[in-house]
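# step 3/5: fold
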Amino acid sequence: MTSSSFADRPISLSATPAPRRRLVIGAAVAVVFVLAALAAVLLPGSGGGHAAPATARYTTADKAFSVAVPEGWRALRPAELKRVAGGPSAVLRRNDGRGLVVVNEGPALARSSRSLTRDLTAQLTRRFAGMKPVTARTVALAGGPAYVYTFARPTAERVQSIAVAPRGTKTYTLDAVAGAGATDVAAQVGAILRSFDTTNQAPRS
């Protein structure tokens, strides 16, 4: 499987850089807390209580899909998207640079969840030294199911998720990044992934 993941793209983290003497275990513990927040909003039936309420939805110009935009986040405008390498369908970025969600659109995939797990694990292990798979599950969203693969990068102090949502003849891939220790950001990222819909919802005020 060839992934269109933005997982290896850098994002700006506003937190003060950690001292060199900080032990890796400290980062790993922070990752655990972020994963707990992310998992909480991705579990079926979860209300996402830790996330800030979404005040708007971003809908693509062709109305192919929409996602919630939590307070403190913004979606890149069409002119900005054109300048992003890879031509993503949408990019949501937290204003302080501590969270990022990128949506890409591709053709239908003939993959089972088991083969997705195997292929993603192999691909990400090659790409990221010290990558730690955490969870792989299918989540029910409003427009259909999505396969969500979450992994940690303790040395980089990041938690990342890749959501694969097959919809008809298309497959949408949502790549999400949150800084380790930022449980509020992880909760918002999870809420964005849960909000993904292809039923052309109208914007909410």
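# step 4/5: annotate
The two ends are 39 Å apart (CA to CA).
# step 5/5: archive (pending)
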